[in-house]
Automatic annotation (TrEMBL):
<keyword id="KW-0663">Pyridoxal phosphate</keyword>
<dbReference type="InterPro" id="IPR005786">
    <property type="entry name" value="B_amino_transII"/>
</dbReference>
<dbReference type="InterPro" id="IPR043132">
    <property type="entry name" value="BCAT-like_C"/>
</dbReference>
<protein>
    <recommendedName>
        <fullName>branched-chain-amino-acid transaminase</fullName>
        <ecNumber>2.6.1.42</ecNumber>
    </recommendedName>
</protein>
<dbReference type="Pfam" id="PF01063">
    <property type="entry name" value="Aminotran_4"/>
</dbReference>
<feature type="modified residue" description="N6-(pyridoxal phosphate)lysine">
    <location>
        <position position="162"/>
    </location>
</feature>
<dbReference type="InterPro" id="IPR001544">
    <property type="entry name" value="Aminotrans_IV"/>
</dbReference>
<dbReference type="GO" id="GO:0052656">
    <property type="term" value="F:L-isoleucine-2-oxoglutarate transaminase activity"/>
</dbReference>
<dbReference type="GO" id="GO:0009097">
    <property type="term" value="P:isoleucine biosynthetic process"/>
</dbReference>
<keyword id="KW-0808">Transferase</keyword>
<comment type="pathway">
    <text>Amino-acid biosynthesis; L-leucine biosynthesis; L-leucine from 3-methyl-2-oxobutanoate: step 4/4.</text>
</comment>
<keyword id="KW-0028">Amino-acid biosynthesis</keyword>
<dbReference type="InterPro" id="IPR033939">
    <property type="entry name" value="BCAT_family"/>
</dbReference>
<dbReference type="GO" id="GO:0009098">
    <property type="term" value="P:L-leucine biosynthetic process"/>
</dbReference>
<dbReference type="GO" id="GO:0009099">
    <property type="term" value="P:L-valine biosynthetic process"/>
</dbReference>
<dbReference type="GO" id="GO:0052655">
    <property type="term" value="F:L-valine-2-oxoglutarate transaminase activity"/>
</dbReference>
<dbReference type="InterPro" id="IPR036038">
    <property type="entry name" value="Aminotransferase-like"/>
</dbReference>
């Protein structure tokens, strides 16, 4: 779908997959004015195809758009784009354990203009790719590298938006994580509060059953996290969103007050954190059953194996 200041949203169409032609002066290439989403389509045992809380992705795309001075795509157009692609790509939705079709909606400034101002011409695209299981041979705890030299976002910055620049700035710390034999990076904010991983939110489980997750204006509000926390509330857990300092994390683990730490996002759903490593420490993390049982409950809903009591699924194919 295209957008221009004069014409609004226009020319929606499904076309064969192929390269996008851009003017070398297209604003996105110079100033990074772009945003995206990540969402999956799941095939149920009866063959039907569903997606999970697409309204939430549509609304987050709108919030990202506001921050990046891009036009807001109406949520109904967003969901319509998923339906129209599935109408063509339905055979590509795999069936089987933890298989899905990954959908990648994105929007960028395509106007050829080298001045620094919001672009007057924008494009919204949706592409898709079959995705296999994130874990093969069972869920494995991940090891986390604490990034002390690099921040992901600052106050008033773009941390809460899903925009490429945040991911570009996470690549060097991610390389540092690999050098230190860790799978993922955890970012802190300027107050040394825990933010999130490169592509997942963090959740702490306390001894008394309370679940705490970092909250700040620079964190991407994960839809998986929101859903997992709702399932935990349904089970009677108290849930708190608040600042969590690195010191609270480390001392909570050392004293046994924190009994589980896990990360969550669309790709891996939920993964326990096994190790937190910094320049001069390595803390083993406690593991428990809650992360995996919430993971199972959520994936059961997504794959139609359990009642969708919150009405989160939206059917995308035909009927
Ligand atoms: N934080 C970041 C930085 C992410 O890229 C993602 C993945 N979209 C998440 C958190 C988790 O969000 P969601 O559960 O909506 O996938």
């Amino acid at each position: 779908i295209c957008w221009s200041v004069r014409g609004g949203w226009h020319r929606p169409r499904v076309q064969p997959y192929g390269p996008i032609t851009l003017d070398p002066a297209a604003a996105v290439l110079h100033y990074g004015q772009e945003i995206f989403e990540g969402i999956k389509a799941y095939r149920h045992a009866d063959g039907s195809v569903h997606t999970f809380r697409p309204d939430q992705n549509g609304r987050r795309l709108q919030r990202s758009a506001r921050r990046l001075a891009l036009p807001e795509l109406p949520v109904s157009y967003f969901i319509q784009s998923l339906r129209e692609l599935i109408a063509v790509d339905e055979p590509w939705v795999p069936s089987g354990e933890d298989q899905s079709l990954y959908l990648r909606p994105f929007m960028f400034a395509k106007e050829a203009f080298l001045g620094v101002r919001p672009a007057n011409k924008v494009a919204y695209y949706l592409i898709a790719s079959p995705a296999g299981a994130y874990f093969t041979g069972g869920v494995k705890p991940v090891s986390i590298w604490l990034s002390e030299d690099y921040a992901r976002a600052g106050k008033g910055g773009t941390g809460a938006a899903k925009t490429g620049g945040n991911y570009a700035s996470s690549l060097l710390p991610q390389a540092e994580a690999y050098e230190n034999e860790c799978d993922q990076v955890v970012f802190l904010d300027q107050d040394r509060n825990v933010e999130e991983l490169g592509g997942m939110n963090v959740v702490f489980v306390y001894k008394d059953g309370t679940i705490v997750t970092p909250q700040s204006e620079s964190i991407l509000e994960g839809i998986t996290r929101d859903s997992i926390l709702q399932l935990a509330r349904d089970r009677g857990h108290k849930v708190e969103g608040r600042g969590v300092s690195l010191e609270e994390w480390r001392s909570g683990v050392a004293s046994g007050d924190i009994v589980e730490v896990f990360a969550c996002g669309t790709a891996a759903v939920v993964t326990p954190i096994g190790v937190l490593k910094g320049r001069d420490f390595l803390d083993q993390q406690p593991t428990g059953d809650l992360a995996l049982s919430l993971r199972e409950e959520l994936t059961d809903i997504q794959y139609g194996r359990r009642e969708d009591k919150h009405g989160w699924l939206v059917r995308l194919d035909g009927a």
